[in-house]
Each structure stands twice: as structure tokens, then as C-alpha cells.
Amino acid sequence: MCGILGPTSVNSSMGNFECSYDTAVARINWTRDEPVLACALVAENEWRGLRTTDQQVQDPSRLLRRLPLHDGAAADPKFRSPGSVSLKTGNIMTAK
């Protein structure tokens, strides 16, 4: 999918995958249902920020990593990590 020597871009049935020079890790777009879950977290938290260490972020991160939405992506520890879920909730919170 992505090479160590440089970035590549791949189109597949799962969407577009892009790599950056510095990480060579695929960037996988969030499906429609994934941000809906993040939005529910923000709403349940009364539109306040959710930190990476919050259980309300830890549990959905584990759930998103187990879903069969992105072939093999969960092998990457950064994929839908608590940090990425927290960031997504922050983005949603500031966009209200």
C-alpha cells in the first residue's frame, strides 16, 4: 500500500489511501458512522472536551479498532487511537 521510500496514493473500494513522507502510514478517511459515534460522545459530554485518558474516549477507540471497516488498519497503533478519537471529538465540539 504505502512504501518506505516515499508517498504513494492508492484508490480502492475502501476509499483513497495516502501516505506522507515522514510517517509512511496510511491516512484513512473516517466513514460516516465513525464521526456519528464521536458526535454522540460530545453530545453526551455536554459539548465539553474529551481527553485521551477519558474512559469515554478509550472505549470507542477500542470499538472502532475492532470494526471490520478498514481492512487491516487496526494493525497500526495510531489507527483510531484514543488520541485520534479525542481529536475528532474536539473538532466536532468546536464546529457546533
Concise overview:
The protein is globular. Helix content is 39%, strand content 10%.
SS element count, helices: 3
The H-and-E topology, N to C, reads as: EEEHHH
Mean pLDDT across every amino acid position: 79
Radius of gyration: 14 Å
Could you name the ranges where pLDDT drops below 50 across 5 or more consecutive residues?
A: 1-12, 19-24
The proportion of residues forming helix, as a percent range, comes to 25-40%
Instruction: Tell me the strand order in the biggest sheet.
Output: 1-2-3
- What is the subunit arrangement here? single chain
Shape: globular
Measure the end-to-end span.
Answer: 35 Å
Described by strand count, sense and barrel closure, the largest sheet is: 3 strands, antiparallel
Coarse structural class: alpha+beta
Number of strands: 3
Strand content: 5-15%
Supply database-style keywords.
single chain; 96 residues; alpha+beta; 3-stranded antiparallel sheet; 3 helices; globular; disordered N terminus
Describe this structure in words.
With 96 residues, the chain is α+β, with helices and mostly antiparallel strands. Helix content is 39%, strand content 10%. It contains three helices and three strands, in the order E-E-E-H-H-H. The protein has a three-stranded antiparallel sheet, with no helix packed on it. The N and C termini lie far apart (35 Å). Residues 1-12 and 19-24 have low confidence and may be disordered.
